[in-house]
Amino acid sequence: MKRIPRTSLAAALAFTATIAGAQTTLTLSGNLDLYGNYMRSSSGSHIVALDDGAVQRSRWGLRGTEDIGAGYLVKFQLEGGIHADTGGLAGSGLFDRQSWLGLSTPYGEFRVGRQNGLIFTHGDHVDFTGRTLGSLINSSGLPARFDNDVAYFSPRLRRMQFEAHVALPESPAGNHPLVLQANLEYADDAIVAGIMTLHALPPTHAAIDKDVEYDNVYASWKYGRGTVYLAFVHSNNITANAASNTAGAIVPGAGGYNAGTSPDLDHFYDIWQVSADYKLTSQLRVGAHGGSI
């Protein structure tokens, strides 16, 4: 086994191992994101802390491929979040972020396991933050990844690609309600535009027999050193309480299903968002975004 080490300036460590004599790759990758945090309230209380995840959750993972011939590749990815400041696991398991096995073919790619959802993976085309860092869309009932997910990714034809997911929640509720996702996207050197939808079906004989819906239309346009982003979301995946109209998500960000019990399934909201960025240098970018909900 030949090991080739690589390092990056983003406090990340990765290496790739290639098995001699076979077209097989195994990559160990990850990033550590630590930051100093000082907060002071109007009461005079203050906190000085070392925290994890200023830009991205610290994580580590394994991914690999094996060429089995005739244009077919077996693939896998395992990825888990960690608290870099304590060394503990960020989630409920060793590979809480992703754990899937796939087969790439001339007719598209098939994957099964715990996978990132469409809304998460297409965030770079939704707003300049990559759908993080205070994005209205990111903070409004966004399901990110799902267990027991069966996915298909089509080849890109005429700059169009189709993607579909069916998650099979292992829930105690009725008929094991499904979470369905689909996306159709156009992409060239300057323009990316797409539409994605998520429907989380309720169990049979649910008290509130309505789907969780999350529909997102998005587009981005690159001009010189900058990019402009437009996005629209129509959804009922937010719960409310006395203090806030965005108290939580019916289908949570990591896994979960629609139990068909929330009265907020009757409440839909719309988000309009526009954002833009501009590269001052190859390493420095500025941007802003705004919207309404």
Write the layout of secondary structure elements.
Layout: E1 2-7, E2 13-18, E3 24-31, E4 34-40, E5 46-52, E6 59-69, E7 72-81, E8 98-105, E9 108-116, H1 118-121, E10 145-153, E11 160-167, E12 179-187, E13 191-200, E14 212-223, E15 226-235, E16 238-239, E17 248-249, E18 269-279, E19 285-292
Antiparallel strand pairs: 1-2, 2-3, 3-6, 4-5, 6-7, 7-8, 8-9, 9-10, 10-11, 11-12, 12-13, 13-14, 14-15, 15-18, 16-17, 18-19
Describe this structure in words.
- This protein is mainly β and 293 residues long.
- It has a domain of 137 residues.
- 1% of the residues lie in helices and 52% in strands.
- The strands form 3 sheets. A 15-stranded antiparallel sheet has the order 1-2-3-6-7-8-9-10-11-12-13-14-15-18-19. It has a two-stranded antiparallel sheet with strand order 4-5.
- The N terminus is likely disordered.
